[in-house]
Amino acid sequence: MAIDWKDYKSPDCYDELILPSGRARAGAGTLCRTFAGMNRDELKERKAAAELAIRTMGITFTVYNDVEGSIDREWPFDIIPRIIQASEWDEIEAGLKQRVKALNQFIDDVYHDQQIMNDGVVDPAVIANSKDYRPECRGISPPHGVWSHVCGSDLVRDENGDVYVLEDNLRVPSGVAYMLENRHVMKRVLPELFAEYLIRPVDDYPTQLYETLCSLTPEAQPNIAVLTPGIYNSAYFEHAYLAQEMGALLVEGSDLTVGRDRKVYARTISGLTRIHAIYRRIDDLFIDPKVFRADSMLGVPGLMSAWQAGNVALANAPGCGVADDKLVYTYVPDMIRYYLNEEPILANVPSYRCNIKEERDYVLGNLDKLVVKPVSESGGYGMLIGPKAKARERQEFAEKIRRNPRNFIAQPMLSLSTAPAVIGARAEPRHLDLRPFILSGADTAVTAGGLTRVAMVKGSIVVNSSQGGGSKDTWIVGGTTEGDEA
Amino acid sequence: MSLSPMLSRVADRVYWLARYLERVENTARLINVTTDLMLDLPTTGHDGWSTLVDITGSSAQFDRADAPNQEQAVCRFLLSDRDNPGSLISSLSGARENARTIREIMPSETWELINAAHLYARDNLSGQLSRSARADHLRRLIGFGQQLSGLLENSLSRGDAYEFRRLGSNLERADMTTRIIDVRAASEVQTDSPASRQGYWRSILRSLSADSAYRRQMQATISRDSVLDFLLHDASYPRSLEYCVGQIGLALKQLPRNRRALAYCRELSKHFSRDVERLARDSALSQYLDRCQVYLGQLHELIALTYFSLDGHRRSRQQQ
Fold first, then answer.
1. Which residue in A has a C-alpha nearest to residue B120's C-alpha?
2. Contacts A–B by Cβ distance under 8 A
3. How much is the pLDDT for B317?
4. Are A407 and A424 found together in one domain?
5. A447 and A472 part of one domain
6. Among B111, B183, B135, which residue's Cα sits nearest to residue B28?
7. Which of A202, A251, B41, B67 could form a disulfide with B73 if both were Cys (CB 3.0 to 4.6 A apart)?
């Protein structure tokens, strides 16, 4: 026997599968027994089978490397799935829908009358100083009032198992293709477990994305394109995957052109073909060199003008990053109360706003206890993890905060939950989070679970794949076939 | 979900994917056949291995002076040398890069297979290889090629991607057929014994895996004229020049804006149909094959201009 759950100890954290007593949590019993029943060779075989599947399926992500330039790495994957009970998930799902609904109303408000600021709920300076506020979007009304059609919100658990939203990724969140491929790999590697559990399927996502995009144009048979920066982008695998699954054109900026009629066309073997909706995976600032960065080679000159004229739908809409700002994040519970007149179902991680003097003073006095984040970075870059940083790093960071307080928020160091991961021929606890994806168009849909990202380095809480993170398949289970266990 | 016409960029990549895959298979086959041929020939008085470099048209990059063991040097150059853009590994990397950027329009196993072939070649072709190991690895790679052809034939929808693949693989195939005849025929001239002369013509057939098809069609005798006639004009053998050009024409007929390329294709067929009797002199044959290659090159240019280049679009847009 390779894995003995009695020996498995999660360090003062909530563990997703195993209770402090060493017994399995509700729903995880069959899974834990299956793994405990494998000997070393069997466990290694399954792990090797997963690695082989990932290699031959070509599931990669691209990292930039100084020596070799851009290289493809195989997707790091752990074979022990993460389990969430359906009853808990249903509540999370409702919370995510509520949250994204409020966020979309907020963005629409920001680019129209700014009532939430006129009513004193959000400080106008927060928007005025936002790096992602786009004056070019003022007065534009995208279909259904939706700006963020694809949102990836990162969820974490604290030591009590309570779920918090860590951040909302509203610009071009990635990871959904890995969620889909993780399930494919899992089915190849541990097919017998799928007979034991009633697991909510995830594979309807591409269809839902397609329907979301279709709902943004009046066309009955719209031509849809996925706009990618190209094969050297770290998420290119995903762009190609989604285009293929949707039957959409996968285009680069140079494949598109905007005519004098302010409509968008693709260069095809038949000449120019009209495009009605674009799922763009390029950041705002690069989509149109005529309006934003003139040096962008990735974008399409005139695209903004076509969008402003209502001739093409862009998902996500330009300017929606204004709500991706981590300082804006701190206002989301207020937004939910303001726009929806509801209490937030999901909680924010308590956050300190460095632009407010009292909160900044607290942050500067407690840097050794806090995680400080730049407000408009993603991918885990530019953070200070106070308790793990050296004194000098903290001093340098304090200086950065004083120089530009608007640019930082701070949160208490959460002891992220763990789940067992196969390390060698044993199971060891590793920290993880969860990124579900929320689609908004005429309707709203949430993935069943999402992408569970795992910090594969012992003790680390950085889950980003660009920084050594891996992932797990995420199972929303419940219903008839699984007995109780706790 | 709706179907739009293919992007010019994607058409370009499908076309090159097909050309690269064809090139990989041809290179592997050429080396295996040459290995066999060399075993049958006297050890002196022929330039055996280096003609392979000429066939692939990459003699400019190959440093002959630096090659004590010609066989090893040529095989390394043609198989695993990444600095040689015509090497098998370079072609396979080219195929992989192209496949990678058009994953969304190919059957999903295509990428897996190309990826597997690339990993296989990368792991097995570098370093010193024994003849038998080399032959085994190359047979595996030919097998990957055949598996891919089968996959695309059986799973790729008949549409633009299929036609551009047909254009690419047939153009490459036609080009390779003319090159193999050209260079091998030139080596045959230098050989005295009738037995080795026959060996050369047989090796030409085998390089194109045409030996059994030839025998069925032309019976057992292997002679210069009948081999030439078969490889240039046989209407039913898929690697004959005539067949390849016919396929290119059929593919073009399915594509939009095909007027100029089709007209050129018809001219080409006329040139190719020259009687073998008129190619009796070796200089005539060599001239004829050179012209074939030039024409094939021009056909490629025309296809690229019509379907791939952005300039072609500007022109067509002005016409609209």
1. A56
2. 85
3. 37
4. no
5. yes
6. B135
7. B67
Query: Is the previous residue joined to A316 through a cis bond, with omega within 30 degrees of 0?
Result: yes
Average pLDDT, chain B: 84
Q: A208 is in which domain, residue-wise?
A: 204-315
Record the pTM: 0.78
Tokens of B61: 């990059």
Q: Which residues pair with A249 in a beta bridge?
A: A225
Q: Which of A396, A412, A428 is a domain's end point?
A: A412
- Residue A456 CA to residue A471 CA, distance in Å, equals 9
User: Average per-residue pLDDT in chain A?
Assistant: 90
Distance (Å, whole) CA A483 – CA A146: 41
| Same domain for A188 and A85 | yes
Among partner residues A55, A270, A272, which is closest to B256 by beta-carbon distance?
A270
What confidence score (pLDDT) does residue B314 get?
Answer: 44
SS3 A381: coil
Does residue A337 sit in the same domain as residue A235? no
Whether the complex's predicted ipTM is more than 0.85 is answered with no
> Same domain, yes or no, for A106 and A153?
yes
Q: Are residues A434 and A480 in the same domain?
A: yes
Identify the pLDDT of residue B50: 79
Q: At A391, which CATH number? A: 3.30.1490.270
CA atoms within 13 A on the CB side of B281: 4
Q: Which of A59, A264, A268 to probe the B interface (max B CBs under 10 A)?
A: A268
> C-alpha angle with apex B67: B61 to B70, nearest 5 degrees?
100
Same domain as A87, residue A176: yes
pLDDT bracket for residue B135 (50, 70, 90):
very high
The number of domains in chain A is: 3
Using a CB–CB cutoff of 8 Å, tell me whether A371 touches chain B: no
Residue B104 to chain A, least CA–CA distance (Å): 4
Does residue A77 lie in a domain region?
yes
Q: Of chain A residues 235-294, which have a CB less than 8 A from chain B?
A: 240-241, 243-244, 246-252, 254-255, 266-273
- In a shared domain, residues A425 and A405: no
Beta carbons of A30 and A207 less than 8 angstroms apart: no
pLDDT of residue B316: 40
In this structure, is residue A476 part of a structural domain? yes
- Domain assignment present for A144: no
Residue A115 domain-assigned (yes or no) = yes
**Which of B9-23, B59-73, B136-150 is predicted least confidently?**
B59-73
- The answer on pLDDT for A429 being more than 70 is yes
Residue A438 tokens read as: 């929320």
> Residue B211's closest CA among B10, B29, B3?
B29
B160 sits in which H/E element: helix B160-189
pLDDT at A465 over 80: no
Residue A277's CATH number: 3.40.50.11290
Q: Measure A263 CA to nearest chain B CA, in Å.
A: 14
Digit-coded pLDDT (tens) for B181-236? 887 776 666 666 666 777 778 888 888 888 888 888 887 688 888 899 999 999 88
